[in-house]
Amino acid sequence: MLTSDFDYDLPPELIAQEPAPDRDGCRLLVMDRATGALEDRVFRDIVDYLHPGDVLVANETRVMPARLIGKKRGTGGAAEVFLLRQHGTPTQNRSALWEVLVRPGKRLKPGSGAVVDFADAAGNTVLSAEVVDWAQNAQKGERVARLSTTLPSLDEALHAVGRTPLPPYIKDYAGDEELYQTVYSRRESSAAAPTAGLHFTPALIDRLREKGVGWETVELEVGLDTFRIVDEDDPERHVIHTEFYTVGQRTADAVNEARERGGRVVAVGTTSVRSLESAWDAEAGRLVPKDREATSLYILPGYEFHAVDALITNFHVPRSTLMMLVSAFSTRDNIMAAYAHAVAERYRMLSFGDAMLIG
User: Fold this and answer.
1) Does the pLDDT value for residue 186 go beyond 80?
2) Where in the cell (predicted)?
3) Positive or negative torsion for Cα 281, 287, 288, 293
């Protein structure tokens, strides 16, 4: 198995630069997990493929205003700080440590006393970031920065100066940033959206519930590594990123009950897959609750899925761990054939693009 086995030709013009006019009006490619058979549908038709007793599990995380653009104290030079995750125990005060990415990296090194100031719309400096250390096991130049604010809370300061980050392949989007949030999102804890959920509307969720399909949630704090390709020729040598996830008691009970009565567990997105599979207790043969635990679960072809029976997902970046995950859920040949079909049929690809149902 080689990383190049998960490559495909992605025409740049197919990378969606804005969301579909209607969330549930995007296209849906339905693929039979076992045979690879394909159907072209519209996302709201997903109701036809789900049955009473099935349970959908979605990642309810919300994207943080994680992109901070400011000026380096002392020189006034432009600088950017990108928040990845809070360092240590999360707090809600006026100062906290965060793991971050910075630009320019050469001028914002730990130990140099580097501080970046961020101003609100009125030009008042309300937030500062001091680069204090390298992040543990830093592989992409991650640092630890101490954020501090003059406002009542860091949350208020971040919303005053921060921007919602978009994937690097989306250029110059000037639309409503709320369209990069799911309609059911709650706590801000991610640097990127769980994009498979962007297609759901409150009305569509209600239709599913009326049909007897359950709706439950998990939380996985999505990191930027979700966009990165695998650099190693041998994917098994790749070190996957660590993310934090939570599976509540209600969701664990709902999944276990669905499986006991013959219903399917349908993961909304790869982040839900990683959460559910990470929370699976092999010895007990059931899902168990987890509270913000770390997972480095790396799903490659050959992996045996325990908690997930069907998957709703977007189309992914070539040579990514997500291509490997969806290939593991079916077969590499089925997935590559589906992607070739999607490209030929001019599906819209990646985060703002169309969706797949693999079941």
Assistant:
1) yes
2) Cytoplasm
3) positive
